[in-house]
Amino acid sequence: MSETSMWDDHTPIVQGLPEKKVIRPIQQPRLTVVQSFYHQRPDGEPHERVNRWDHLLDEDEQPYLRERTIKAGEIQAIDTGWVETPHTILIENFEGKFTSQNPTNEEREEAQTRILFLTAMRQGFDFFIPIIPGDCFRLPIHEDAMTLILNGSISLRNDSGSPIRYSITAYPA
Q: Containing H/E element for 130?
């Protein structure tokens, strides 16, 4: 087997380097979700549960993201901004996250009372989904749920005595 040098045909020979993987651009917008859950007992091995899925989107619009505050005792409609037909809405409760200080035990306990409720009212039936401080809730949207959002039947509610900081992200369908 003969080797050519880089001077023979003006093509350098690089030996021992792995081939580069070609990253192809996606042909259609996509929403990918990866959730990991870990549980471990003090006397046992950790147990992991991973949930992964993706969905090809019909629209190429940008997701709508807003950080907001809901006052004590207030009810707010779900705001999807310019995303008229969302596929998924993600609501995150920012309370209980202390980034610039070491909170006292009293401050930690008070922050844990700031529970944001996702409420839905339909045909006289009400239900409440608590979004505890530091947690988030993913609301998958189908046609019936979007009708409820548009007519104000699904909303956010703050029953605590303090304002709650949260974010809402609407991903297009």
A: strand 125-131
Could you give the CA distance from residue 36 to residue 56 in angstroms, rounded to a whole number?
22
Whole-number Å distance between alpha carbons of 116 and 133:
8
Helices (H), the chain: 6-9, 105-111, 143-150
d(CA 158, CA 71): 7
- pTM (predicted TM-score): 0.75
pLDDT digits 0-9 by tens, 103-160: 888 888 888 999 999 988 766 667 889 999 999 999 888 776 677 776 667 889 999 9
In the chain, domain spans: 59-172
Per-residue CA distances from 32 to 28, 53, 83, 92 (Å): 13, 6, 18, 17
Distance CA 83, CA 169 (A): 10
The fourth-level CATH superfamily of domain 59-172 is Jelly Rolls (2.60.120.10)
- In whole angstroms, what is the distance from residue 28 CA to residue 173 CA? 12
